[in-house]
């Protein structure tokens, strides 16, 4: 435990060229499973993202969230914009790659292919890792209300996306273009839209945006996607796993 009540995981040091990188690592009760990288939104490594690692561990995955801001967090949009503006992209890249290396070398991680789950800013990092920086390492990518360009032909991952129609932070036309680019590269892609939801709808600490029903459906679909595409690298699919409902 890392000292917070109810936490399954702990803070760990990340390997890499830049010393000082850390992340939150949660292990499944069974002791091992497929590795999943959790990439936080522009708020930093806040409690909900550590909680998601715990939740993924409870579902049988080895989950690691690198702290891309190295301890800095924000609670408001203005503060998050300031953090983003002061970001050290080289350090963030080094820490993200260090997190991949930690998962790849961890004794609890089963199989070869990793998963990535990214939120808003973190979704862009998930795309970058799976298409540019470490394309051979990822078998499944899950995007929450975030996008980026990438060389999808290089990727080996199957993509799942969760988006809110009319999202002012992630316009519909950009989401459609991303889905088309992934499909044109010959990769498996499924994007779900959640009518009535908004940006950050999955994050329970954002009361202005959190949508419990949409969040639960997105969670079920995420676990099913990770199980299905990482099953051949360490986890048998659970009974009834599937792509979820329509949307």
* Mean pLDDT level: 90
CATH class: Alpha Beta
Number of domains: 1
In the predicted model, the low-confidence regions spanning at least 5 consecutive residues are 1-5, 233-247
CATH topology: Rossmann fold
Helix-strand makeup class: alpha/beta
Shape: globular
Strand segment count: 8
Explained architecture:
It is a single chain. This protein is an alpha/beta fold and 247 residues long. It has one domain (12-233): Alpha/Beta hydrolase fold, catalytic domain (Rossmann fold, 3-Layer(aba) Sandwich). The chain is 34% helix and 17% strand. It is built from six helices and eight strands. The chain has helices at 47-58, 77-85, 89-105, 121-133, 172-184, 212-230; strands at 10-13, 22-26, 35-39, 62-66, 114-119, 138-144, 158-163, 189-193. The chain has an eight-stranded mixed beta sheet with strand order 1-2-4-3-5-6-7-8, sandwiched between helices. It is globular. It starts with 9 loop residues before the first strand and ends in a 17-residue tail after the last helix. The model is unreliable at 1-5 and 233-247 (pLDDT under 50).
Itemize the secondary structure elements and their pairings:
Blueprint: E1 10-13, E2 22-26, E3 35-39, H1 47-58, E4 62-66, H2 77-85, H3 89-105, E5 114-119, H4 121-133, E6 138-144, E7 158-163, H5 172-184, E8 189-193, H6 212-230
Parallel strand pairs: 3-4, 3-5, 5-6, 6-7, 7-8
Antiparallel strand pairs: 1-2, 2-4
Feature tags:
6 helices, Rossmann fold, 247 residues, alpha/beta, 17% strand, globular
């Amino acid at each position: 435990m890392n000292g917070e009540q109810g936490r399954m995981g702990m803070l760990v040091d990340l390997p890499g060229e830049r010393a000082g990188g850390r992340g939150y690592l949660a292990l499944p009760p069974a002791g091992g499973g497929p590795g999943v990288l959790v990439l936080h939104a522009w708020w930093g490594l806040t409690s909900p993202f550590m909680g998601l690692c715990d939740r993924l561990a409870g579902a049988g995955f080895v989950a690691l969230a690198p702290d891309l801001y190295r301890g800095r967090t924000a609670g408001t949009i203005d503060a998050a914009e300031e953090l983003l503006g002061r970001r050290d992209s080289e350090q963030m890249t080094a820490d993200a790659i260090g997190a991949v290396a930690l998962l790849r070398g961890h004794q609890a991680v089963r199989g070869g292919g990793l998963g990535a789950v990214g939120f808003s800013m973190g979704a862009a990092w998930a795309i970058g890792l799976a298409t540019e920086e470490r394309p051979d390492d990822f078998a499944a990518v899950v995007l929450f209300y975030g996008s980026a360009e990438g060389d999808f032909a290089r990727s080996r991952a199957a993509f799942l996306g969760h988006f809110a129609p009319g999202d002012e932070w992630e316009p519909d036309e950009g989401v459609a273009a991303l889905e088309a680019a992934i499909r044109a590269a010959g990769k498996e892609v499924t994007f779900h839209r959640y009518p009535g939801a908004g940006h950050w709808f999955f994050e329970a600490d954002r009361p202005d945006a959190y949508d419990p029903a949409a969040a639960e459906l997105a969670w079920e679909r995420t676990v099913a996607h990770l199980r299905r595409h990482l099953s051949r690298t360490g986890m048998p699919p659970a009974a009834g796993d599937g792509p979820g409902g329509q949307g």
